[in-house]
């Protein structure tokens, strides 16, 4: 949906604020697009064999339910192996319990749905350990924020990272991305603060190694989400950002989403 339609809708809504009756605006609808959430994450300390890919479709402006997609053929292959993902347990959730993650290995995702084939190719990225987490209770922007700083050592090679902060009091996580072009080989850190945090709040911190292409994609998604949906990149943004998934049957009927492969370091921290 075009941004102009959102602006028109906001103006129209403000005009109706004094009315008691709820009015739904008759908006144009388009053919639903396939959405492929194919984030393969290998948590440090595990074998990474269990993985999940979620298929759904877009819905209209007033939709309250995300339509799941069943009946697709979903697989990932490397140079010498292939892994099948099936949704036998829950519609739209395609599972695999024997995946083999290898840092630096190149993988190809293939999804066949409604007679069309969608593919994407990506390389699994490594990530360094989280070295230290320190409280940063200096008030932040508001003067009343609690915060933390998460430190890690960047290797001497060009790397890109993403972090997910999930405080127990939030309904959705907060994401950040960073590269190392100007600070290659040095200690780096993530900083997170918020006025709703307090002493005793538990935060789950997930640190990802990502490719440069995925960094560029998430940078756009986070920028749009921060200005329109409170900072969560997995709420519906008012613009379409293309990922790396290509419809080889009909290029015009592209899928939304991204195929990524990341080693991740996960830790819990309680604000002091």
What can you tell me about this protein's structure?
The protein is mainly beta. It has a domain at 130-227: Sandwich (Immunoglobulin-like). Helices cover 11% and strands 42% of the residues. The protein contains two helices and 15 strands. It has helices spanning 3-15, 212-228; strands at residues 34-43, 51-57, 73-77, 82-90, 93-96, 106-113, 116-123, 130-135, 146-153, 160-167, 174-179, 187-194, 202-210, 246-247, 256-270. The protein has a twelve-stranded mixed β-sheet, with helices on one face. Strands 8-9-12 form a three-stranded antiparallel β-sheet, with no helix packed on it. A hairpin with a 2-residue loop joins strand 6 and strand 7 (116-123). The longest helix is centred in the last third of the chain and has 17 residues, at 212-228. It is globular and about 55 Å long.
Quick structural gist:
With 272 residues, the chain is mainly β.
List the helices and strands and how they pair.
Blueprint: H1 3-15, E1 34-43, E2 51-57, E3 73-77, E4 82-90, E5 93-96, E6 106-113, E7 116-123, E8 130-135, E9 146-153, E10 160-167, E11 174-179, E12 187-194, E13 202-210, H2 212-228, E14 246-247, E15 256-270
């Amino acid at each position: 949906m075009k941004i102009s339609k959102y602006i028109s809708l906001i103006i129209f809504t403000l005009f109706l604020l004094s009315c008691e009756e709820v009015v739904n605006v008759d908006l144009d609808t388009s053919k639903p697009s396939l959405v492929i959430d194919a984030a393969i994450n290998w948590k440090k300390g595990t074998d990474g064999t269990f993985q999940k890919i979620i298929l759904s479709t877009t819905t209209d402006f007033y939709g309250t339910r995300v339509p799941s997609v069943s009946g697709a053929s979903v697989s990932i292959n490397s140079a010498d192996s292939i892994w099948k993902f099936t949704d036998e347990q829950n519609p739209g959730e395609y599972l695999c319990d024997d995946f083999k993650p290898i840092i630096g290995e190149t993988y190809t995702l293939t999804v066949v749905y409604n007679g069309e084939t969608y593919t994407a190719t990506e390389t699994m990225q490594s990530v360094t350990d989280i070295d230290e987490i320190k409280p940063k209770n200096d008030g932040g922007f508001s003067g009343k924020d609690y915060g933390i700083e998460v430190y890690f050592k960047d290797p001497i090679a060009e790397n890109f990272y993403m972090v997910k902060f999930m405080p127990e009091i939030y309904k959705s996580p907060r994401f950040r991305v960073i590269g190392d072009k100007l600070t290659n080989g040095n200690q780096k850190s993530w900083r997170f603060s918020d006025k709703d945090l307090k002493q005793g709040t538990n935060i789950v911190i997930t640190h990802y190694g990502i490719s440069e292409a995925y960094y560029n994609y998430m940078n756009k998604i986070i920028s749009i989400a921060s200005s329109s949906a409170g900072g969560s990149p997995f709420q519906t943004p008012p613009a379409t950002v293309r990922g790396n998934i290509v419809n080889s049957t009909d290029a015009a009927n592209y899928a939304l989403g991204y195929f990524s492969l990341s080693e991740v370091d996960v830790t819990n921290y309680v604000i002091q």
